[in-house]
């Protein structure tokens, strides 16, 4: 419950109120949904993947029952509210881009963690945020690993539950788990594994099922009735969301059709002999798992395996803390003699996983949520060191401002672009970058970059010609025509990369600069060189006038 | 003064030049552009469509768009198989006794290759298929292949293998998985019953000419090919990248492609191929009927410049619902009379709908105990796969998964043993099957697959019925090698794809500028020349293609997306030209990489040691082609004079001319000619003054 409030504020934090994408079906991620949509009055779209949409209402209903029926909470959402809320949910597929409105789009990526879990990319224009929800970077028995493309979000918001934990290999943990179960069963003990209906339960079932098959064990395995049975159906129908191996072989053998695992009946708890029971709920705070626990706790041959985290105040938490005497209702005390093992199978990314995801997505900024402050601080330093990006870890309710630096998209006229690319060549010359000139027209909401000529035309403006004429005097004992020829040769040698033309009518044209030679009859050797250029050739014109003033080489 | 006018006479811009060709350098530049333009071909027909298949429902087109080469579908025309003799699973005395063919005059003897059955001649060899055209363009240049549905990818191994193809194939997950099943099925059908030799003599042009019809008229027989192998299928499919509906896939930064639900089959898609400014829609095999797949997404097809339309219904006169009714009643009639029903069909697609329909129908018809058999090497896989693609199903079926229940009722048929599936007639089936029964099996061409066996087995009894539901083959041609036949034949083609009425309504809604379609859609069906309602009538008329056509698509690309780096954007100084319109001159360095264009600020030149710098300024010519902005506006006389005055130029003689004024700066001996659209500064030996005057003039003008 407390977790659920935390998450609620996080939700508010990173998602614009325009839409709510829900990452997966765990209550700490979707528990507040009916409250928000039916009681607070949020009326925008809600997005979920298909499996989340399928499983979420069941867990919500379960949550509601426990809270209202058992705890007596009154200001809580009703069954009808859950139904109404689910009607507003828009299912989405992985990698599908959903246009929420004209600017906002969201896209889901596979997150591992639990069936149907997704990470979301939220994008407006060229700016984007990725919110991971809970994710898992190593494939497990039934799910694949989270994956994202190099989408370079401005901010990557990642959970950091296991901020510093670099967990031992999954294989080791699995081997350990099987060994303990096996030993207990061999010596005739009973094993109780409290689980949540969906998620870890299926992973452990697959694990035990294959082990039983391989070792040809006969001790019965049960799972408690209720959700888990139904849950297996979901896994069968949403097999495309599981890992590669299961997907590949499902036609021959559906991994979620268990041969050795059967439905549990409460009377079985008193049966003699070894057995393994998966029972809900996972924290031993109520229900079947607690009932079975009470029956088996007194026998040291039995074993309790806690595969996940327990909230403070629950029986599970007390036992994990080594408490050997439990006070039960009616002043009775329960002696805990059975063996207790804690084995974390919860699928969160560890520090290595988080770093892996950063490497995949290449975010510009990093934001850590969900986790212990000290550990997060450590991870933050590590991230900042290794990736040289800013990393934030806001407290609940705190607002973080991240300044982005988006480039400005503009429509460039194709003529201008092609001309530029043709002149500049395919590869820019780093030493002599070519400068391109264009006119940016800002009209209504459009930005268009066109050539200056086109801009004039489009805006209905006429061009203003600015010309310069310069007379250079020079002594040259040749005919006018020869002088002009000498100028031509001179310029040819100086201006290698320019277009220079000697026009028969007695002019030399350099680019657009016109050069003429005249002289008077009185002083035929005193030549007047006329240079005339437009503003567009200003630099060249200025250069030529200076050059010619120095005379011609002899 | 004299000088000035002389220059104006000869080289000053004339009125005409002023407007059209402002200066020589730009004329040269624009000539250059035009030349390059051809090279880049960015004017008209920027986009080309190469049509490698003429078959309207098994398309294979290649679109060249911007710098990408995109193949749209990869359909395999299997109707060529109809020219061949069926491949029996067990020895067929009837088929082996068919007489060989010898020409009437005895001159041509092909009795080894050709067999005659009921007046028709068939090739006795492994059936071959007609491939998409391979010679029209170099297939190794294809960057990507977009697949619209699993029926339209069957030629994939021919294209991706042995052609140098190195690109990527995009398809949805159901399309890939079911497409794989159909390919594997095809391969199994062929490899199960190998033929010792391949017949090729009959293909000789001189000989083919002499053969009886329809073999005589078969076209391009030399390009026909045998079926591919499993290795080739695996290799081809390893090139597939999965995509989801509405997923935006970037191709080389130039083009974005997006699959959209087309409503025809599991995972079937139409494709949007677009850049920021152009949009092509590829509509292939779409359906507006509510069957099992997700409904067709229509609105995203709006605003297309070009819409390529393929895969309309092949039986425009038949209503699928009516056909389904007929299917059921014929089936019931036969079963009641104690006969068996044979349904030649593909292993995925309409069969799911048939089973669902029969699931309801059989009980109501009191035939609940009749067994259904689905026989195919991939029957089990097909049935299993259909249940796990909830995301790709219509809402009705999707909501079943939420319960959680399997989306298709055939799960229940299997559970209750009403539907049984077998990989082939061999094995368990032969011992388990009961009659009368309904058998679903392939291949619908009746040339290979288990269906051949049932034709031999049941063909002789008039109690039995064969019901054709697949529209791909002419049922008369399909039956030809089994004649004479006693079994009843019912033709109930179920083609859920768009009919002409639906498509014209769709096009009215989505309003594409141009439509491209296979030629047959532009005229009434040959068999019904008066039915002008069975063709596309559009304004402007659709552009029709046939096999080997190359169409230039009418496109005029005018803009491209470019990004200004934030630093550059911040440095711009916009000025308002008129209400609501501002301009800013942009001088920047263009960087183009992976078809993405970015403008960045001009880097400041590296500082040069001062001693050297002087030398440079005087001796090195300025950078080539670094044009100044264009100018606009006017220089008004009085304010300009005031400005001169302010800058210490006081002795100015103003002379009025026809077009404006001439200012004579007497002390400096400089002439300034002011006209409405032009300013001319004549200044001889005073460069600092000239540049000062230049800057004063520029203050009055707008830079563009």
From TrEMBL, chain A:
Gene3D superfamilies: 3.40.50.10890, Ribonuclease Z/Hydroxyacylglutathione hydrolase-like. The keyword Acetylation does not apply. It comes from the Eukaryota. Residues 201-319 form the Beta-Casp domain. InterPro entries: Beta_Casp, INTS11-like_MBL-fold, IntS11_C, MBL, Metallo-B-lactamas, RibonucZ/Hydroxyglut_hydro, RMMBL. SUPFAM superfamilies: Metallo-hydrolase/oxidoreductase. GO terms for molecular function: hydrolase activity; metal ion binding; RNA endonuclease activity. It is found in: Cytoplasm; Nucleus. GO terms for cellular component: cytoplasm; nucleus. Its cofactor is Zn(2+). PANTHER family: CLEAVAGE AND POLYADENYLATION SPECIFICITY FACTOR FAMILY MEMBER (PTHR11203), INTEGRATOR COMPLEX SUBUNIT 11 (PTHR11203:SF37). This is Integrator complex subunit 11.
Automatic annotation (TrEMBL), chain B:
GO terms for biological process: negative regulation of transmembrane receptor protein serine/threonine kinase signaling pathway; regulation of cellular response to growth factor stimulus; RNA polymerase II transcription initiation surveillance; snRNA 3'-end processing. Residues 351-479 form the Beta-Casp domain. SUPFAM superfamilies: Metallo-hydrolase/oxidoreductase (SSF56281). It comes from Cyprinus carpio. It holds the Pfam family Beta-Casp. It is found in: Cytoplasm; Nucleus. Belongs to the metallo-beta-lactamase superfamily. RNA-metabolizing metallo-beta-lactamase-like family. INTS9 subfamily. GO terms for cellular component: cytosol; INTAC complex; integrator complex. Residues 1-25, 598-623 are annotated as: Disordered. Keywords: Cytoplasm, Nucleus. This is Integrator complex subunit 9. It comes from the Eukaryota.
């Amino acid at each position: 419950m407390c977790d659920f409030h935390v998450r609620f504020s996080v939700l508010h934090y990173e998602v614009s109120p325009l839409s709510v994408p829900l990452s997966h079906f765990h209550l700490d991620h979707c528990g507040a949904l009916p409250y928000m949509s039916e009681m607070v009055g949020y009326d925008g779209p809600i997005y979920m993947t298909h499996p989340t949409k399928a499983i979420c209402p069941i867990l919500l209903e379960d949550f509601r029952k426990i809270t209202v029926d058992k705890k007596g909470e009154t200001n809580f959402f009703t069954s009808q509210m859950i139904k109404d809320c689910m009607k507003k949910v828009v299912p989405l597929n992985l990698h599908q881009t959903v246009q929420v409105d004209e600017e906002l789009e969201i896209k889901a990526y596979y997150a591992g963690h639990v069936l149907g879990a997704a990470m979301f990319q939220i994008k407006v224009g060229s700016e984007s945020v990725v919110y991971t929800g809970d994710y898992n970077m190593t494939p497990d028995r039934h799910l694949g690993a989270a994956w994202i493309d190099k989408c370079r979000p401005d901010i990557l918001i990642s959970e950091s539950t296991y901020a510093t934990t670099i967990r031992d290999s999954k294989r080791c943990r699995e081997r350990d788990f099987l060994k303990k179960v096996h030993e207990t069963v061999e010596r005739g003990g009973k094993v109780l594994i409290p689980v949540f209906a969906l998620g870890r339960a299926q992973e452990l079932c697959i694990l035990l099922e294959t082990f039983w098959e391989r070792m040809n064990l006969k001790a019965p395995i049960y799972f408690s009735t209720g959700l888990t049975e139904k849950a297996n159906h979901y896994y069968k129908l949403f097999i495309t969301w599981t890992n590669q191996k299961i997907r590949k072989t499902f036609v021959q053998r559906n991994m979620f059709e268990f041969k050795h695992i059967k439905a549990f009946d409460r009377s079985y708890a008193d049966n003699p002999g070894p057995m393994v029971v998966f029972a809900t709920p996972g924290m031993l705070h109520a229900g079947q798992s607690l009932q079975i626990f009470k029956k088996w706790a007194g026998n040291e041959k039995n074993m309790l395996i806690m595969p996940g985290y327990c909230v403070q105040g629950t029986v599970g938490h007390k036992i994990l803390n080594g408490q050997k005497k439990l006070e039960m209702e009616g002043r009775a005390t329960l002696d805990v003699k059975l063996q207790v093992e804690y084995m974390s199978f919860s699928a969160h990314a560890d520090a290595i996983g988080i770093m892996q995801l950063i490497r995949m997505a290449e975010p510009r900024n990093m934001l850590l949520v969900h986790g212990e402050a000290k550990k997060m601080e450590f991870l933050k330093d590590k991230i900042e060191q290794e990736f040289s990006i800013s990393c934030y870890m806001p407290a609940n309710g705190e607002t973080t401002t991240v300044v982005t630096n988006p480039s400005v998209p503009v429509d460039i006229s194709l003529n201008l672009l092609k001309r530029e690319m043709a002149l500049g060549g395919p590869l820019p010359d780093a030493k002599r970058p070519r400068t391109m000139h264009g006119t940016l027209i800002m009209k209504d909401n459009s930005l268009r970059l066109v050539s200056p000529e086109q801009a004039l035309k489009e805006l209905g403006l006429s061009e203003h010609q600015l010309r310069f004429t310069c007379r250079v005097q020079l002594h040259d004992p040749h005919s006018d025509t020869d002088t002009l020829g000498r100028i031509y040769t001179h310029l040819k040698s100086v201006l290698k990369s320019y277009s220079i033309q000697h026009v028969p009518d007695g002019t030399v044209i350099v680019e657009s600069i016109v050069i003429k030679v005249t002289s008077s009859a009185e002083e035929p050797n005193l030549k007047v060189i006329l240079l005339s250029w437009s503003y567009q050739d200003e630099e060249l014109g200025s250069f030529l006038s200076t050059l010619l003033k120095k005379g011609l080489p002899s | 003064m004299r000088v000035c006018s002389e220059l104006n006479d000869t080289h000053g811009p004339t009125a005409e030049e002023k407007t059209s060709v402002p200066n020589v350098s730009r004329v040269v530049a624009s000539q250059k552009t035009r030349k390059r333009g051809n090279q880049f071909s960015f004017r008209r027909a920027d986009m080309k469509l190469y049509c490698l298949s003429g078959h309207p429902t098994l398309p294979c087109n290649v679109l060249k768009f911007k710098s990408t080469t995109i193949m749209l579908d990869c359909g395999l025309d299997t109707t060529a198989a109809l020219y061949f003799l069926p491949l029996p699973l067990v020895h067929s005395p009837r088929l082996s006794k068919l007489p060989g063919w010898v020409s009437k005059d005895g001159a041509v003897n092909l009795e080894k290759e050709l067999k005659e059955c009921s007046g028709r001649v068939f090739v006795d060899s492994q059936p071959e298929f007609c491939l998409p055209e391979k010679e029209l363009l170099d297939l190794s240049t294809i960057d990507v292949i977009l697949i619209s549905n699993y029926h339209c990818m069957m030629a994939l191994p021919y294209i991706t293998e042995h052609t140098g193809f190195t690109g990527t194939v995009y398809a949805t997950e159901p399309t890939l998985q079911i497409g794989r099943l159909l390919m594997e099925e095809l391969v199994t059908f062929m490899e199960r019953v190998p033929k010792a030799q391949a017949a090729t003599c009959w293909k000789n042009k001189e000989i083919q000419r002499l053969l009886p019809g329809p073999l005589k008229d078969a076209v391009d027989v030399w390009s026909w090919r045998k079926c591919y192998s499993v290795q080739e299928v695996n290799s081809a499919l390893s090139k597939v990248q999965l995509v989801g509906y509405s997923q935006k896939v970037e191709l080389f930064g130039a083009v974005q492609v997006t699959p959209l639900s087309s409503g025809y089959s599991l995972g079937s898609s139409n494709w949007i191929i677009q850049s920021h400014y152009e949009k092509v829609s590829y509509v292939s095999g779409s359906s507006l009927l509510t069957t099992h797949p997700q409904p067709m997404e229509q609105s995203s097809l709006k605003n297309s410049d070009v819409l390529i339309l393929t895969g309309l219904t092949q039986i425009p006169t038949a209503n699928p619902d009516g056909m389904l009714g007929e299917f059921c009643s014929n089936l019931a009639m036969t079963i009641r009379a104690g006969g068996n029903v044979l349904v030649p069909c593909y292993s995925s697609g309409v069969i799911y709908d048939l089973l669902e329909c029969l699931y309801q129908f059989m009980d109501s018809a009191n035939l609940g105990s009749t067994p259904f058999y689905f026989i195919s090497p991939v029957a089990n896989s097909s049935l299993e796969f259909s249940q796990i693609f909830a995301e790709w199903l219509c809402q009705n079926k999707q909501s079943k998964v939420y319960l959680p229940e399997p989306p298709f009722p055939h799960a229940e048929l299997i559970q209750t043993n009403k539907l049984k599936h077998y990989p082939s007639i061999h094995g368990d089936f032969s011992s388990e099957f009961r009659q009368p029964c309904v058998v679903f099996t392939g291949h619908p061409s009746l040339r290979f697959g288990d269906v051949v066996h049932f034709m031999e087995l049941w063909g002789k009894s008039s109690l039995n019925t064969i019901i054709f539901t697949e529209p791909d083959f002419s049922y008369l041609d399909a039956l030809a090698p089994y004649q004479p036949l006693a079994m009843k034949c019912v033709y109930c083609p179920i083609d859920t794809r768009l009919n002409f009425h639906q498509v014209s309504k769709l096009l009215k809604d989505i309003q594409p500028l141009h439509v491209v379609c296979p030629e047959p859609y532009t005229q009434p069906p040959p068999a019904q020349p008066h039915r002008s309602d069975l063709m596309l009538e559009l304004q402007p008329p659709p552009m029709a293609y046939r096999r080997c056509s190359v169409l230039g698509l009418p496109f005029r690309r005018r803009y491209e997306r470019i990004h200004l780096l934030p630093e550059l954007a911040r440095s711009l100084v916009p000025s308002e030209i008129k209400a609501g319109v501002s301009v800013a001159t942009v001088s920047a360095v263009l960087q183009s990489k992976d078809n993405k264009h970015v403008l960045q600020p001009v880097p400041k030149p590296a500082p040069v040691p001062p001693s050297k710098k002087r030398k440079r300024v005087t001796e090195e010519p300025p950078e080539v082609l670094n044009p100044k902005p264009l100018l606009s506006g006017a220089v008004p006389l009085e304010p300009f004079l005031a400005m001169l005055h302010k800058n210490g130029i006081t002795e100015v003689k103003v002379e009025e001319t026809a077009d404006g004024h001439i200012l004579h700066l007497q002390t400096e001996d400089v002439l300034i000619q002011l006209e409405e659209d032009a300013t001319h500064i004549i200044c001889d030996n005073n460069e600092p003054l000239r540049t000062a005057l230049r800057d004063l003039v520029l203050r009055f003008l707008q830079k563009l």
